[in-house]
């Protein structure tokens, strides 16, 4: 069953002026941010989990970090981004918000940053970065999440590419899609996590640590 865009949009929560400005900026400058239905689902899941700390891999311009911080008034967020231009933009947008005191932006490659020097554990990890690196991200940051914590991974569907035979995927994206499919097979068979795929936005994977 497919739902119309208008029907889906009727459930999207209203946003403040700053967030809508960021949405317009992202659209105009082709910055990938989480789709609105998906961020609403993520935030609802976070309300249920109620984490006090979140580690985000992939800040972009800070949109999802702001959305999560506004949803969870008692939560602190550490977010990592390697693109210096986006780091500067994220810091500018976050500084204009009312939740800037609870968001820490780190510039650097997430696979090289020693997050434990900042914080040793996180109740949740949100991965929204290079899709071909999901296993490496997971292996590095999952140990920071205690049993009962959750890892959220966005863009699992990759605009439908993940559902194609690899021969149908554009050649320049085949390695990334192979890695992404390998990751999904790996995590779904991992006995240390209860994992569920949510077909919302571009595909959201929820991994509850046992």
TrEMBL record:
Q: Which domain of life is it from?
A: Bacteria
Binding site residues for Mg(2+): 128, 154-155
Enumerate the GO terms in the molecular function aspect. magnesium ion binding; O-methyltransferase activity; S-adenosylmethionine-dependent methyltransferase activity; tRNA (uridine) methyltransferase activity
Please name the SUPFAM superfamilies in this protein's record: S-adenosyl-L-methionine-dependent methyltransferases
- Entry binding sites for S-adenosyl-L-methionine: 34, 64, 81, 109-110, 128
The UniProt catalytic activity note for this protein reads: 5-hydroxyuridine(34) in tRNA + S-adenosyl-L-methionine = 5-methoxyuridine(34) in tRNA + S-adenosyl-L-homocysteine + H(+)
Class of this enzyme: transferase
**Known EC number:** 2.1.1.-
The record's listing under InterPro entries reads:
Cation-dep_OMT, SAM-dependent_MTases_sf, SAM_O-MeTrfase, TrmR_methyltr
Q: Is Methyltransferase a UniProt keyword of this protein?
A: yes
Q: Which Pfam families match?
A: Methyltransf_3
This protein's record includes keyword Transmembrane: no
Q: Which UniProt keywords apply?
A: Magnesium, Metal-binding, Methyltransferase, S-adenosyl-L-methionine, Transferase, tRNA processing
Cite a single GO BP annotation. Answer: tRNA methylation
**What family is reported?**
Belongs to the class I-like SAM-binding methyltransferase superfamily. Cation-dependent O-methyltransferase family.
Q: What does this protein do?
A: Catalyzes the methylation of 5-hydroxyuridine (ho5U) to form 5-methoxyuridine (mo5U) at position 34 in tRNAs.
Q: How does it assemble?
A: Homodimer.
Cite the HAMAP family for this sequence.
Answer: TrmR_methyltr
Specify the protein name: tRNA 5-hydroxyuridine methyltransferase
Its gene name is: trmR
